[in-house]
Amino acid sequence: MIRKFLPFALSFFLIILVPFPLAAWQPEAGDTTATKIKLNVGADIVSRYLWRGTDFGNSPAIQPTLSLSVGNLEFGTWGSMATNISFREIDLFVKYSYKNLSLIFTDYYIPILNGLPASPDTRFFTYNDEKTAHSLEASVLWRGNESFPLWVLGGVFFYGNDKRWGVDPHRDNNEETYYSTYLEAGYTLKIKENNVDVFTAFTPFAGAYGGHAGFVNVGITGYRKIKITDALELPIKASLMFNPLTSNAFFVLGITI
């Protein structure tokens, strides 16, 4: 019952909250900044693609991003390609932010996992719930301010390829959605000019993140900018992460360009 209730609860949450900020956000007369379109283009090069306590691709990966922001709305795409061609992902997302709160809808398209087809039909435009390589997630993110840099994230898969995880024979045989849920909390520390994130994450039941409830992503990420020239800095990050539920540990280096 809890699995089936979560996506409906999130949907209700979105329905209640979205109209309020949309009505409340009215640019003042003469304020042109609120309607400007902002373009973000970038990429990360990482020694491993670690996502929510799981290693995808078992190799270095290239991860480009492209997004457009208009006022409080952001539309974008993000991807990851393993250098050993064993994993490929393209995500589309819509994000609405109001003050400290963000409501996010993400379409994860993963046709290849561990070098094999990740679903019965890996074509991009196939959205049949029982065959698609797409997984749809609704999530809510609350992020504090500089004086209290805490964040809390909750996300639930509610449609698509959140199936066949091998932990519930009944669900696997009937290709039922697991409603895999991820709950994360973190805090950002300032050390001189650098930031350090500490975080912990939990899944409340079996699904995409593991065979039962437990902590799946506990760790620390440090950020630093290396000065190349007076006008150019290279952002780097290093993460030490543990997955207590699967007894795994990871140490990852990333470079942003």
Quick structural summary:
By secondary structure, the chain is mainly beta. The chain is built from three helices and 15 strands.
How does this structure look, described?
This protein is mainly beta. It is built from three helices and 15 strands. The chain has one domain (2-7, 39-256): Porin. It has helices at residues 2-17, 19-24, 169-174, and strands at 37-46, 49-51, 54-56, 61-70, 73-82, 88-98, 101-113, 116-117, 134-143, 150-160, 181-191, 194-203, 214-229, 232-243, 248-256. A twelve-stranded antiparallel barrel has the order 1-4-5-6-7-9-10-11-12-13-14-15. Strands 2-3 form a two-stranded antiparallel ribbon. It is globular, with a radius of gyration of 19 Å.
Indicate the topology.
Blueprint: H1 2-17, H2 19-24, E1 37-46, E2 49-51, E3 54-56, E4 61-70, E5 73-82, E6 88-98, E7 101-113, E8 116-117, E9 134-143, E10 150-160, H3 169-174, E11 181-191, E12 194-203, E13 214-229, E14 232-243, E15 248-256
Antiparallel strand pairs: 1-4, 1-15, 2-3, 4-5, 5-6, 6-7, 7-8, 7-9, 9-10, 10-11, 11-12, 12-13, 13-14, 14-15
Instruction: Find the CATH superfamily.
Output: monomeric porin ompg
CATH C-level: Mainly Beta
SSE order: HHEEEEEEEEEEHEEEEE
- Helix proportion of residues, in percent? 10-25%
List keywords for this structure.
257 residues, 11% helix, two-stranded antiparallel sheet, mainly beta, Porin
